[in-house]
Amino acid sequence: MSKSIAIVWRGTPETRDAVLPESSRLFPVAQALEARGLRVRPVVYCEEASAEVRAELAACDGVLVWVDPLTDGRTRGDLDKILRAIAAEGVWVSAHPDTILKIGTKQVLYDTRNLGWGGDTELFRDAITFRRDFPKRLDASGVRVLKRYRGNGGQGVWKVTGLGGSRVRLQEATDRDGRSSESTLDAFLDHCETYFEGEGRLIDQAFQSRIVEGMVRCYMCGGTLAGFGRQYPAGYRAGADPENTFGLPAAKTMLDPSEPEFAILRDRLEHKWTPAMQRLLGIADRDLPALWDADFLFGAEPGEFVLCEINASCVTPFPPGAPARIADVAARSA
Question: In this structure, are 199 and 216 located in the same domain?
Fold first, then answer.
């Protein structure tokens, strides 16, 4: 009998009986799985149907998950418990919650800062240390980027610019128009205390002034590059002022993995950085997600790339060649 692979996305109790429509971005993945002889089981996840979802997933050989860390105030806490439980029973899960904690949170920027894609990065685990040390780091460089431990869509990602005295200019990455506001530094530090609730923390990175040139998203299937996404800021123009550039809301241009402009980046990512990250964080080949992406900004020097974030929870859209590679990983791992 052929192996069964569940494709999981978030919905509501009312959409639990939904099939995977042809218009869905995940439909090509289902087609690729079926082309590899795998049976596809669409599963709509919602907390209200937790027990039913667990039973459905436990009956599968493998699970592919597309659920954001934060959606309308809801987290993945319940779903992650389900995924850990079925994985312990032998179901292959991509991405496993433990793998997401290693690479899919902003802490990966701190943990891997010395691999060649990082740099001036600090991790704050508590509000007291943050309140004591962050003002000094801001004072030294004039502008910093703060990132919430877990989130998506730019939630809790702040560009903080010192204005002298006790004033700061703030831009959150959720604001797609490049607008900013001013505040006292103390008021902003107060606001950030919510980010330390539970197991929360904040990551502090140097601001990359070449953000005006956009970002390169590298789509990975296991340890193999499946394609690039080239993204420019909204209203991009040559010589744009980095002062008001943040958030990168523009649509992506998908590029083939053989794109010559990023051949060096591909070589480093596949043969140097990803294996080094696996060794450092203890990630086996089988535990690399079937689909994840690493976002890079351009560094100060030619040919230098700086890791912006890694996404492993809910990567969409993705290049046309990705579904076949996802199916290869699933067939090999489940």
Answer: no
Residue in 153, 154, 162, 115 with CA at minimum distance from that of residue 134: 162
Q: Are residues 229 and 314 in the same domain?
A: yes
Model confidence pLDDT, tens digit, residues 13-57: 999 987 898 999 999 999 999 999 999 999 999 999 999 999 999
d(C-alpha 181, C-alpha 234), whole Å? 19
Query: How many structural domains are present in the chain?
Result: 3
- In 3D space, the residue among 84, 44, 27, 93 whose CA is nearest the CA of residue 64 turns out to be 93
Locus of tokens 């460089």:
141
Rg (CA), the chain: 20
Q: Helix or strand or coil: residue 4?
A: strand
Does some domain include residue 54? yes
For residues 202 and 148, the answer to whether their CB atoms sit within 8 Å is yes
57 with 185, same domain: the answer is: no
In terms of residue numbers, what domain contains 274? Answer: 102-118+209-319
In a domain, 332, yes or no: no
Phi, psi of 189 (to 5 degrees): -60, -40
Q: What is the pLDDT of residues 109-154, one digit of tens each?
A: 999 999 999 989 999 999 999 999 999 999 999 999 999 998 777 7
Q: Which residues of 134-161 are buried (b: 16+ CB within 10 A; e: fewer)?
A: bbeebeeeebbbbbbbbbbebebbbbbb
What's the CA gap between 144 and 209, in Å, rounded?
11
Residue 71 lies in a domain: yes
pTM to 2 decimal places? 0.91
Residue 73 has pLDDT above 90, yes or no: no
